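Work Package 3 (structural annotation) set out to generate three-dimensional models for the target panel prioritized at the project kickoff. During this period the team completed the workflow that converts sequence records into discrete structure tokens, so that structures can be stored uniformly alongside our sequence database. As a representative example, we reproduce one entry of 381 residues exactly as it appears in the project archive.
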Amino acid sequence: MRSVSLLGSTGSIGTQALDVLRAEPQRFSLVALAAQRSIDLLIAQANEFRPALVVIGDDSLVAQVRRGVPEGTTVLAGVEGLTEAATVADVVLNAVVGFAGLPVTMAALESGKRLALANKESLIAGAPVVQKARRTPGAEIVPVDSEHCAIHQCLSGVEGTSVARLLLTASGGPFRGFTTAQLEEVGIADALAHPTWSMGPKITIDSSTLMNKGLEVIEAHELFGLPYDRIDIVVHPQSVVHSMVELRDGSTLAQLSNPDMRLPIGYALGWPDRAGVAFGALDWTKASTLTFEPPDRTVFRCIDLAYEAGRRGGSAPAWLSAANEVAVEAFLAQQLPWPAIADVVAATLEAWPDEPIDQVEDVLAADAAARARARSFVSHR
């Protein structure tokens, strides 16, 4: 039986991960749960699964959590609690939202654990230090993002020298086919109406701008080591082909399933063994059509901003990620119109100071500097 630590248990990925654990209790044992503020759901999860450790990110809520969890459960709080939870299991599923997931990623890898990574921002912003931690004996990353999980599966048994390109698929989000003029009028509810996936607000807004896909390009570069000119994006509205690997002989390998995040979650937790439950299985007896098209990069400007930051390297991806988080927060708070998300990110990147990243403190400093600059742009619009 494989032990699991689930950080970010009350969000979309976290709750679906618990579905996977419920489906195969003979394979997985949940030993730690963590959430930031959703104490009612966290307490309910703790009483159902009875992990040894429960962590609440907000220190002020510790007493309430302690009163609600089963007797004998250890309750910790804050970043120290999160990093402790990232060291106590065979597999650590990092589903913490945004840059806040970096300490979890680092703690899991430095402890020589398998990291089931659903927090792309930590790998993107902290790439140089994360790659060092990845070299710890026993440490490995198995991606949970459906696109990178698909590539991980396609690359199994394929010689690296045979790979010509990685093709990341994108649904196109709620604004596929929109013109720049049409996007001037969109609101929060429009941007949160994703046509395929049910996700948290931050990643859903990222999917509407296609920044999520740009971030995934950087993630793919870091995970699989291919240069940026061999990583492409293709819009695939049906979200059945989750990504593809093109080989040098012209063959293309693809992973297909219905859009169900429980499949990549189960894959990351159990790999190299496959899950015994068919999450996302397709019905091949029914007629269906799969279509593909290039993204409109003149409308969805965040794609090229991400490529630019990735190619710059150093702290540039951290600046990109931080500026995007600030801009998305401002949009959700009705402080920015949707098109200004890309404006804020672009303006912040223009101020990037070209600093190297050698340690975690450098990542934190780059993140803080980028957020300050992005907030300044937001406040002066």
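The mean pLDDT is 93.
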